[in-house]
Write a structure and sequence with these properties.
Helices cover 72% and strands 0% of the residues. With 115 residues, the protein is mainly α.
């Protein structure tokens, strides 16, 4: 059980803890975020290991990566696969899963199609 800080209670702290608890129990979401984190750190070997364990991982992430790649190219980035590129993917997937755990839709195209 979460005990809020009596000096500075912040309900978003409890939400973040609950989000991370759900992520820990959700293998698909956890692997998506670990994949993006591996790519942020430039550890393609770890990313490929995750893809080998979760055969649907690359398929789930392909539209997200493609959308971010196209956006990076449209903004003139000559190197779309930078750490910032993967940070944006991590943030989008985290927001998506967090919204899903709250029972709402985020603003990603996947949720827009479901609306």
């Amino acid at each position: 059980m979460l005990v809020p800080n009596s000096v500075d209670p912040n309900p978003t702290d409890a939400l973040d803890v609950l989000t991370f608890e759900r992520l820990a129990d959700d293998p698909h979401a956890r692997r998506e975020l670990l994949w993006a984190l591996s790519m942020i750190q430039g550890d393609t070997r770890a990313a490929r290991s995750l893809e080998a364990v979760d055969l649907g991982l690359a398929k789930r992430l392909a539209p997200v990566v493609a959308r971010h790649w196209l956006a990076a190219r449209a903004h003139g980035s000559s190197e779309p696969a930078s750490p910032a590129f993967y940070e944006a993917i991590w943030s989008e997937r985290f927001d998506h899963h967090r919204a899903r755990y709250l029972g709402v839709l985020c603003c990603c195209p996947e949720c827009a199609r479901a609306a």
